[in-house]
Design a protein that fits this description.
407 residues, Rossmann fold, elongated, alpha/beta, binds oxidized coenzyme A, six-stranded parallel β-sheet, three-stranded antiparallel β-sheet
């Protein structure tokens, strides 16, 4: 038994933001039927590592789903879609603005077909002035407050590698869909769920708008920047939060030989001892958070003078033994090979019918009564026969639909 068992999701998503949402729904136990155009989700063919085989881009975002093809621009395709909508609990899409309306299925029409339908859309933007614009990951980062606040003061705005615009929005969409499913239990009605990538990134950049307002009352002293204008500056690796932090270098000095160290008020004494500067623990120039605040750069320099002589794993162990929060910068290679992530089901080996075994990132949502079993992504149209058969389409008609370019 799974949390969402019995929930049927008609998944018209493509690329990343939408598929990341429906994959989570599938892992929570929903029956996710991915409806693709007859050429398939474009990511099946993007960034291919093996010729003729669905890319890792696709396989890592579409696990545990079934796939059907349907040409939504054909009359028969629209008829079949109508039947699918009647049988579904949730419809999810992330096409460019207006695409589903142009297919002939406005929200009003969908409600007529199935009043219990939850219709979730992911777009780049909300209904304001940007509504008609398409969006990709880094556009959302640019317009949601992430890029302006990422990077160093003397460098350009930077994109983060974490896909906060795409997968970040997908997770927000899941929250909306689950709430709508819950509300439907009392209202017996579906509803529209709309999530915009710009909004999701802004939600994740919330603390930077906190700081924008704090600027009116003086400089942001927890940032290492020396001068402040009227916008929150880029502040490198500063935590920017209540507890200062920085990424300091470790031995042997490779691109990921760094550890991120947080200095809590209680952490200064053990840190000063570990780094061999025990005399600073009680020195009034260093002893209190207030004393250290104007010279955070110097403080992290003192810490780095010690970390640079040790590898990041040794530093991790020594600082954690003294209860000092810290985290080594783990490379993608280290992550994919990390034994604890394997044991925790966060790096999972999956068997794909055409590519063989590949690794994917498992579900970060761990429920005690709804365990996740990660299964392969489907081949294009793999479940046409099964699903159209359930709708009463005969084998002969199926062949005809294929010949006519409907499926
Ligand atoms: N049968 C027939 N046609 C289909 C179809 C199907 N099953 N599925 C999709 N199509 C058609 C759509 O109807 C649309 O046609 P029209 O424009 O003629 O109405 C067409 O395919 C293109 O859809 P699109 O606008 O979604 O595709 P695009 O490649 O031009 O744009 C993207 C891609 C991602 C920019 C756009 O979908 C978008 O802005 N989505 C919302 C934001 C989003 O999710 N972005 C994240 C992308 S991941 O980085």
């Amino acid at each position: 038994m799974k949390a969402l068992e019995g929930v049927r999701v008609l998944d018209m998503t493509h690329v990343q933001s939408g598929p990341s949402a429906t994959q989570l729904l599938a892992w929570l136990g929903a029956d996710v039927v991915k409806l693709e155009s007859i050429t398939g989700d474009i990511t099946r063919q993007q960034l291919r590592d093996l010729p003729g085989v669905d890319s890792l881009y696709f396989t890592m975002l579409n696990c545990n789903k079934r796939s059907i093809t349907l040409n939504m621009k054909s009359e028969r395709g629209k008829e079949i879609f109508t039947e699918l909508v009647k049988q579904s609990d949730v419809l999810v899409e992330n096409f460019g603005p207006g695409a589903v309306d142009r297919m002939g299925f406005t929200w009003e029409r969908l409600q007529e077909l199935n009043p219990r339908l939850i219709y979730a859309s992911i777009k780049g933007f909300g209904p304001g002035r940007y509504r008609a614009f398409k969006a990709y990951e880094v556009i959302a980062q640019a317009m949601g407050g992430s890029m302006t606040t990422t990077g160093f003061e003397d460098g350009p705005p930077l994109a983060t590698g974490a896909q906060i615009g795409d997968s970040g929005t997908g997770i927000h969409a899941v929250a909306g869909i689950l709430a709508a499913l819950y509300q439907r239990q009392t209202t017996d009605r579906g509803q529209r769920v709309q999530v915009a990538m710009q909004h999701a990134v802004l939600n994740l950049a919330r603390v930077k708008l906190r700081d924008q307002q704090r600027l009116a009352h003086g400089p942001l002293r927890e940032y290492p920047n020396k001068t402040f204008g009227d916008e929150v500056p880029r502040s490198g690796n500063a935590s920017g939060g209540g507890q200062p932090g920085w990424a300091v270098r470790c031995a042997p000095g490779g691109p990921n030989d760094y550890i991120y160290v947080i200095v809590q008020p209680v952490g200064w004494k053990p840190i000063s001892e570990i780094i061999g500067r025990a005399e600073l623990a009680d020195d009034p120039e260093w002893a209190t958070p207030e004393a250290r605040l104007p010279k955070l750069d110097k403080m992290f320099q003192l810490i780095e003078e010690w970390t640079i002589r040790h590898d990041k794993w040794t530093v991790l162990d020594k600082l954690n033994a003294a209860n000092v929060p810290c985290g080594p910068i783990l490379s993608t290679k280290e992550l994919i090979e990390d034994e604890s992530l394997r044991e925790e089901g966060m790096v999972v080996a999956v068997d794909h019918p055409e590519r063989g075994e590949f690794l994917t990132v498992g579900s970060p949502l761990q429920l005690s009564d709804s365990p996740v079993e990660v299964r392969t992504s489907p081949l294009l149209g793999e479940h046409n026969q099964e699903i159209y058969g359930e709708l009463g389409v005969s084998a002969d008609e199926l062949a005809e639909l294929k010949t006519n370019g409907v499926i």
